[in-house]
Target: 3D-(3,5/4)-trihydroxycyclohexane-1,2-dione acylhydrolase (Decyclizing)
Amino acid sequence: MASIRLTAAETTIRFLAAQETEVDGRRMPLFGGVFAIFGHGNVAGLGPALRAAGKRLPTFRAHNEQAMAHAAIAYAKTHARRRMMACTTSIGPGATNMVTAAAVAHVNRLPVLLLPGDIFSDRRPDPVLQQIEHFGDPTVSANDCFRPVSRFFDRIMRPEQLLVSLPAALRVLTDPVECGPATIAFPQDVQTEAFDWPAEFFRPRLHHPRAPEPDARELAEAATALRGAKRPLIIAGGGVKYAGAEQALAQFAGAHGVPVAETQAGKGSLAWDHPRNAGAIGVTGSAAANELAAKADVVLAIGTRLQDFTSGSRALFGQARLVGLNVGAFDAAKHGALPLVADAARGLVALDAALAGWSAPAAWTQKGATATARWQKAVDRITAAPKAGTLPTDAQVLGAVNRAMPKDGIVVSAAGGLPGELHKLWRATDAASYHLEYGYSCMGYEIAGGLGAKLAMPQREVVVLVGDGSYLMMNSEIATSVAMGAKLTIVLLDNRGFGCINRLQRGTGGAPFNNLLAEAAPPVDFAAHAASLGAEAVAVDGIAGLEDALPRAFRSKRTTVLVVATDPQVSTQEGGAWWDVPVTALPRDAAQERARADYETNRARQRLGA
Model:
């Protein structure tokens, strides 16, 4: 058998460069590149291997390890999991900086390969700089932090272990059910060790996501449940996008007259003006979708984890029978659902055929259309520009951005109050146009995520909506975007603190505390800060100033930051559903008594069980 002598690091990079995927009928590299911040632990091993790879596997330099992993995750999300990236760091803080990002990828079921450097496998120089010493277990390193937030974890103690570990990691990264972060901890001495590798290991491999057909019995039971429905509702989750099932969903909803509500991950599965699109569902949902959910007798949940924001903490559609169409049995059976385990597109096509001749009662379909039309009028009103001189709300800012946005633009956001307003009010044009990280609700994802989306789809305008709190947590990738020529338009909403949590604090009977900045606190000059990172930046005067600045920002070739002051006290009251946030059982004042009474009333409506 022919062999090639390489170091373990060279082998890893050559193997990754040989992996391929197919997108829109075109064969291309599975890995779009590797984000790397070098230090001891990877600079002498993976560093030279990446340099030698050149354009076969491009290397990108970032400014923060968590941020670069966020960018890699966003890249995979924008490509609907068809393409992905790897990230390598030094040992110690460089590695553990990525743990939060690993959790983001795990919760959102998104692929990213993490290659943190690790301590010496031979232990000769122990303890090395940045080494975590476990007094009773010398096999432990800081990288063990990745275990609970990785779908696959391995530590390479001998070079030849890569022959098993790398294919195993690729299996997880490309599997529609197991998909999530794969972590291969790579001791720095092992990276530099040589081995005679079988040449066959480096042959190009084409990866296609598995798309299982539904089981005949489960399909028949799901079809029977829907045929008996008088008030059916579809919930479209992120699995619709990852399966490329948007067309199948539009066909099914149109043919059978079933209204469609969208989760954060599923928003854009149907264009906002599709006749069956009732809008966002759940805690951050539209009045139309939540009204339908509360009255539905059968809910077809497609490609969704049914997390608490979707289900209104299991109280929104607690009386409905659930049918779970999902590629993963774990998710398909949630909330006691009748499972239909299948690829979303193939499951919908099969259901469509099984339900030939059936449609929802015309009165129910019309009720959905009427409620949706009423909601769209509310959206127009809520997002309209305020009177001159009035501090705008988040909703009014995103309304201005949405109106100015190119049709193929992509909006990126995460955490805080903005995702709620965006879920309710943003008008998404296609599956890629709405990019929210709301599974882990990770502050600091926004700008790095925008960078990843731009690298995935450089031809589309990428607009990042970010609050001042998230901006202060992580803004370094502005400099990366400028250096890479990956132009972003960043709209920074300054409400002087954590406005969203302040409102939650007050809504649960608490007094304002430790969230908003005091009046005496000096203002942050965000425009000056962004300019210091290389961006074009300006503080705009209200909505009129924003509307004037946006076209110039879109025309610019350089990352542009537009700062606008907003009202921290106001959020959209229309729509929404209850969210289970525990309230004290020993209320100390009237506000807490009211909050506790409301809490107990809503808890009584929750669906119990699996």
User: Anything to note?
Assistant: The radius of gyration is 25 Å. The chain is about 40% helix and 20% strand.
